[in-house]
Amino acid sequence: MNPELADEAPAPAPIRRLQESLINRIAAGEIIHRPASALKELLENSLDAGATTIRVTVKDGGLKFLQIQDNGCGIRQSDLPILAERFTTSKLSTFSDLSKLTTYGFRGEALASISHVAHLSVVTKTRTSACAYKVHYSDGKLVPAQRGQSEEPKPCAGNDGTTITIENLFFNTPTRLSALRNTSEEYARILDVLTKYAIHNSKVSFTCKKAGSPSPDLSTPSASTTRHAIKMLYGPSIEKDLLQVTVNENTNNEESWSSEVYLTNVNYQGKKTIFLLFINSRLVESSRIKRAIENVYTGVLPKGAAPFVYLSLRIDPQSVDVNVHPTKKEVHFLNEEEITVQICNTLQAKLAEQSQSRVFEYQTLLTGGIETSSQRNDKKRKDVPTETQTANDEDQENEHASGSGPKKIYSHHKVRTSLKDRTLDSMFPVVNPSQIGKEPTDPNSEAQPQARSRDVKESECFLTSVNQLRSRIAKGKHKLLTEILEKHTFVGIVDVNRCLSLIQYSTKLYLVNHGALAEELFYQLGLRQFGDLSRLKLEPPPSLRVLVKIAVDAEEISEETTLSKSDIVDRIVETLQSRRSMLSEYFSLNISEDGLVQSLPLILRDYTPNLDKLPLFLMRLGPQVNWMSETDCFESFLRELAYFYVPGPIISDDSVSTTTEQETDEDLAGSKAERWQIQHILLPAMRRYLAAPKSLLDRDVVQIASLPDLYKVFERC
Ligand code: ADP
Ligand code: MG
């Protein structure tokens, strides 16, 4: 035998038993994926315990601290030592029990798992106990609160019920922890789970807040109804279009399954399907059922629009396959297909029945248009109406229209003039940029943008130059054009790149260059807030020189100048540096002593300029601003600022060639965000603040049609 050869073959590694704690940690990871999954288990325990009030407190997306307090039945002191051991449960003692179980959890694994990946503590009191007890767990066992102390349950003061606290989740599984860095996303998921349970348990009061925050982010009353809960948590726009259906099946006079469904009708068009599925009161996922329900809507909703559906299904517990996955999230059950088909058929019939009435509704709305638009002229509204107000207005409009009042509206005047009517853009789902990255279920997302728009106050200013500029705007104001913009109805964006939108005023349709309008708007708003502009902080602050250099490098230098590019950069940086204090005081443009751009003027809340244009903006400030005369300086600075703020990409000659490349997802999201800003922020701001100068009429606002004329044309078709 050749001893060398024997050396080459590796000796078999000894097989070792994995450390038990490691096994448990791995097993725990299968159940507790993230803070929201821990919370789901705890919520179910609290609901099993008959709680009517559940309070959740969260720190750092639940990773640092996640606490749930309930007023349920509590846990007996004698049970506390084994509470967090694996397979301890009060809900199951023999295998045959498994099939009868209707409560939420049933394997006694949740608390055990949590104790393996976090610091777990419990304070609990049953109704009959004289005091509460506090315990700490680690790796399934009781541990002392501090070294040297006893691990026995410690008597303490407390209310009936149980408070479970999880701290430092995944502290001993660093890879898992690092995969969950985004605490706001984790928080959004927590809110999502809570929202869904709050819908399903409308009789129970839920609250959720961040630790240290005075007000909750989610709060529901006790003894509410499903419909009301949906309205509160998903917004009145969903509730308004909500239908309800019950589907069940009886065999031999015995109910074999039953379901209750709340679903939106064809008038509701969400951006993304919201689907809540509860089977036997447990939040579960089933991609098959979801797909089947989405299919019901494909025929009746426009492309890109999505419904809201909440389905609560009760089936014989024996027919649920609980062993599919330890988290029991994606479920399967007996006769799944049959039941799904039956539910979907009923939903389809309900939607069809309802979609016939839509035609009627649509027409009455049309008839109401003109009348209210003249009323609106009288009222001279200042504010953009809020969601609810407009909804009421619409109701009124409907009433006006259906009542045979003296003012009969002729059919050729039936045009859309209510702000609330559907716009072209609503057919293409567009997302509020501030919602990107969040879960789609932010309760108030619908109502937010308008509610948040606040007054832009005119700053007090004693500089003659500024007052001169302000009165110039007032003098230059074109009355009709301003009125058109003030009272217009947004129809849709025609071309984002060329900045073209359609708006309607009275019965006329105008094509406007929203870019040009926005530039004027930003100039006026900048001037309006002169010396009092909010600051848009740049974190970390970029270097002024680097930014200017980027822009100068991209520029073609005319042959006449003798200056090199780096000379030009030096000059511009010097010019701006030497006026640091003025730029900061008047325009909130802060440049630090060592040349970092710390903040930019924020002209309009909720609107962020395209920061790709920042280098260009800073560079242009050098040559384009007249730094010698006060009035000119302010005006030219504000014009440059407005130019920087105008939506859209950097316009340069070679941009044409680069846009031919395929649009990336990011571009797409960017352009969606931009559309959203144009419709929901810029145009509403124009309504309120723009004193439109006549110059805009020459090129940027064109009347392209008169609707009554168009209607005549259509009538002939
Ligand atoms: P399971 O819910 O599957 O039984 P858990 O580990 O989630 O397993 O919980 C173990 C046991 O602890 C439960 O069976 C229940 O008796 C008790 N328990 C947990 N949370 C609560 C609570 N909030 N109120 C009362 N009892 C609870
Ligand atoms: Mg449980």
From TrEMBL:
<feature type="region of interest" description="Disordered">
    <location>
        <begin position="372"/>
        <end position="412"/>
    </location>
</feature>
<dbReference type="InterPro" id="IPR032189">
    <property type="entry name" value="Mlh1_C"/>
</dbReference>
<keyword id="KW-0234">DNA repair</keyword>
<dbReference type="Pfam" id="PF01119">
    <property type="entry name" value="DNA_mis_repair"/>
</dbReference>
<comment type="similarity">
    <text>Belongs to the DNA mismatch repair MutL/HexB family.</text>
</comment>
<dbReference type="Pfam" id="PF16413">
    <property type="entry name" value="Mlh1_C"/>
</dbReference>
<feature type="compositionally biased region" description="Basic and acidic residues">
    <location>
        <begin position="376"/>
        <end position="385"/>
    </location>
</feature>
<dbReference type="Pfam" id="PF13589">
    <property type="entry name" value="HATPase_c_3"/>
</dbReference>
<feature type="domain" description="DNA mismatch repair protein S5">
    <location>
        <begin position="230"/>
        <end position="352"/>
    </location>
</feature>
<feature type="compositionally biased region" description="Polar residues">
    <location>
        <begin position="442"/>
        <end position="451"/>
    </location>
</feature>
<dbReference type="InterPro" id="IPR014721">
    <property type="entry name" value="Ribsml_uS5_D2-typ_fold_subgr"/>
</dbReference>
<dbReference type="InterPro" id="IPR013507">
    <property type="entry name" value="DNA_mismatch_S5_2-like"/>
</dbReference>
<dbReference type="InterPro" id="IPR014762">
    <property type="entry name" value="DNA_mismatch_repair_CS"/>
</dbReference>
<keyword id="KW-0539">Nucleus</keyword>
<dbReference type="InterPro" id="IPR038973">
    <property type="entry name" value="MutL/Mlh/Pms-like"/>
</dbReference>
<feature type="region of interest" description="Disordered">
    <location>
        <begin position="430"/>
        <end position="458"/>
    </location>
</feature>
<protein>
    <submittedName>
        <fullName>Histidine kinase-like ATPase</fullName>
    </submittedName>
</protein>
<dbReference type="InterPro" id="IPR002099">
    <property type="entry name" value="MutL/Mlh/PMS"/>
</dbReference>
<dbReference type="InterPro" id="IPR020568">
    <property type="entry name" value="Ribosomal_Su5_D2-typ_SF"/>
</dbReference>
<keyword id="KW-0227">DNA damage</keyword>
<dbReference type="InterPro" id="IPR036890">
    <property type="entry name" value="HATPase_C_sf"/>
</dbReference>
